Amino acid sequence: MPGAGKSTIANGLKSKGFEIINMGDAVREEAKKRNLKPTNQNLGKLMLELREKNGPGAVAELIHDKIKNSDSNVIVIDGVRSNEEIKILRKIGIVKLLSVHASTDTRYSFLSDRGRSDDPQNRENFNERDTREISVGISTPIALADESISNNNLTINELIEYAYKIIQGWQK
């Protein structure tokens, strides 16, 4: 779910040499092409519109070429939201899912502190975003993850190292 720590892990893994592709960035790039401000409301509407027009795996299709053109053996995809996206990614390569959990209060706190233009401004916006994320199917990848991390009481370094060890195990 938004704010659980996925991007924190991705940024930490980038410093360890992993290539990162952020699905939210793909939506933000599409918004920029359409001259939309990257607000929570605009990006949410665009995400739903892309899926309605191009199917539930539409955002994975946006990153398809980045993955295919990569020279990296391991690519960390930040922000998978549906089983359909996973199916598309599995056509390109081997997929392992790591879910990151955090309580609602923890996630809200993380998002409030982050300060990105699309972060919720209040609890109502936060709840609306969660509802939207659930509506596109985020619960399925979370439930089907190969591994999970609970991020309620971890430091940033602990979170990154935990994820790094899991990925190292997958590489063996």
State the main characteristics.
4 strands; two-stranded parallel sheet; 172 residues; 59% helix
Tally of discrete structural domains: 1
Task: Write the CATH fold name.
Answer: Rossmann fold
Give the rounded overall mean pLDDT.
Answer: 94
| Helix percentage | 55-70%
pLDDT < 50 runs, ≥5 residues: none
- Please report the number of helical segments: 9
Structural class, judged by helices and strands? mainly alpha
Q: What is the total tally of β strands?
A: 4
Largest sheet: 2 strands, parallel
Provide the CATH top-level class. Alpha Beta
Distance between the termini: 28 Å
**Which superfamily, in CATH terms, is the homologous superfamily?**
P-loop containing nucleotide triphosphate hydrolases
How are helices and strands ordered from N to C?
HEHHHEHEHHHEH
Can you tell me the overall shape? globular
β-strand amount: 5-15%
Gyration radius, in Å: 15 Å
In CATH, the architecture is 3-Layer(aba) Sandwich
Strand ordering within the main sheet: 1-2
List the helices and strands and how they pair.
Elements: H1 6-14, E1 19-22, H2 23-33, H3 40-54, H4 58-68, E2 75-78, H5 83-92, E3 98-101, H6 104-114, H7 123-135, H8 139-143, E4 147-150, H9 156-171
Parallel strand pairs: 1-2, 3-4
